[in-house]
Design a protein that fits this description.
- Its cofactor is [2Fe-2S] cluster.
- Residues 1-25 form the signal peptide.
- This protein has 138 residues and is of the alpha+beta class.
- The chain has 2 domains: 1-30; 40-136, 3-layer Sandwich (Rieske Iron-sulfur Protein).
- It contains 1 helix and 10 strands.
- The protein has one helix at 3-30; strands spanning 40-43, 58-61, 64-69, 73-78, 89-91, 96-98, 105-106, 112-114, 123-129, 132-136.
- A 6-stranded antiparallel beta sheet has the order 1-10-9-4-3-2, with no helix packed on it. A 4-stranded antiparallel beta sheet has the order 5-6-7-8, with no helix packed on it.
- It is globular.
- It starts with a helix and ends with a strand.
- Bound molecules: FE2/S2 (inorganic) cluster.
- Residues 81, 83-86, 99, 101-102, 104, 116-117 line the site of FE2/S2 (inorganic) cluster.
Length: 138
């Protein structure tokens, strides 16, 4: 093997070492786990959650999406898409939940309206006491 070929192989090997871990990290980070089953308490007087006082308001926090819907009141679901783990959001125009990664859509009960996701989003029980919401994620 001449010097030039040996040098080319070394450079190619180095590039592999740098590229592969970052590619693996990217794949791993897109798959979130919804392992937090502790109750979530939301104070609607907190500025962070103030939008939930209005119909159409929504907040994503602690792997949970909370939406003030016209038909169902305030609902809460896992915000982790069941397809590949991206964070879903409220789609005001379509009045459903949309995953920005591959465009899966979910209804407020968590059911899949459009794939590629095939499993529903877990829906959580919401209890309201004045301006305090308790979301049971167990
Ligand atoms: S990660 Fe949500 S549709 Fe693919």
């Amino acid at each position: 093997m001449d010097r030039r070929k040996a040098l080319q192989q070394m450079v190619a090997g180095s590039a592999t070492l740098f590229v592969v871990p970052s590619a693996l990290a990217a794949c791993g980070s897109s798959k979130k786990k919804s392992s937090d089953t502790s109750p979530l308490t939301v104070n609607l007087d907190d500025a962070k959650f103030a939008s939930l006082k209005e119909q159409g308001g929504s907040v994503v926090t602690d792997n949970t999406i909370i939406i003030n819907t016209a038909a169902d009141g305030i609902v809460a679901l896992s915000s982790i898409c069941t397809h590949k783990g991206c964070t879903v959001g409220y789609d005001k125009a379509h009045k459903d939940i949309l995953c920005p990664c591959h465009r899966s859509e979910f209804a407020f009960d968590g059911s899949v309206l459009q794939g590629p996701a095939t499993k529903p989003l877990p829906k959580y029980k919401v209890t309201r006491n004045g301006d305090t919401l308790t979301i049971d994620r167990s």
